[in-house]
Amino acid sequence: MDSKARRTIIVERLRHEGEATIAEMAADYGTSEMTIRRDLELLELEGLARRVRGGAISIQARGFEPPVLQRSAEQAEAKRRIGAAAAAALRPNETIILDVGSTAHQLARAIPDDLAITALTSSLLIATELATKPLVRTIVTGGVVRQGEMSLVGARAVDSFVDLHCDAVFLGVAGISVEAGLTEYNLDDAEVKRAAIASGRRRIVLADASKIGRVALVSVAPANVIDVLITNAAPSNETIQRLRELDVEVIHVEPVEEESP
Fold it and tell me: Which pLDDT band, with edges at 50, 70 and 90, does 81 fall under?
């Protein structure tokens, strides 16, 4: 592993775990503690990590949420494939809840033009996408617009789910762990997600590999509420294996194979 690849992995590890020790990283990456210290010095200079005694912590707080359009560029191909797999599971005349977020947006884009469904969403971006689908009946919740996320939150958004019994809810999350369950960056969005979960017969979570094992600011629901997880995370991932033990069905989306030159 070259130094650039190792530093990339360290940044991603800190994003997932929040912190790591120099000794752990040296053992895991098969290098010396001095090399890890040099890596951390460079990452701190680049503003990607913060050194502490014996290790480093992430500079990204659990409550920090990049804007949705910025997140769309991260893991873009994985999100597209996850969205396509979710769209393939839709059935004619279903009523679904389509959550906010960049992966849910990919699901909306993948809905076939000849599929007739009813979709309820609290995302203005997703509602705009659904409006291009000739046979989709789109319902938008009320609420207050969150800048950057373009989601609708607040009491009116939560109340939109009262007395609804939808066939499925497709959820995007900031993180999934067995201990913390489904987690989100924002308190207001978390309230809307809880209301959506309560109104869906099947709970289908859309999460790329970077979300697996991550814990964000606020817990939305325990991990055992998930019926299906669609992800590109490896089957050998420890969190994935533990979710299977909770009877979560995991659908793996294979990564794209690079073509030979």
Answer: very high
What's the pLDDT tens digit per position in 158-181? 999 999 999 999 999 988 999 999
> Would the pTM of this model clear 0.90, i.e. be above it?
no
Complete DSSP assignment for 81-111: HHHHHHHHT--TT-EEEE-SSHHHHHHHHHS
Name the domain boundary from 37, 57, 77: 57
Domain count, the chain: 2
Judgement on whether residues 177 and 112 belong to the same structural domain of the protein: yes
Range of the domain at 142: 68-252
Are 150 and 21 part of one and the same domain?
A: no
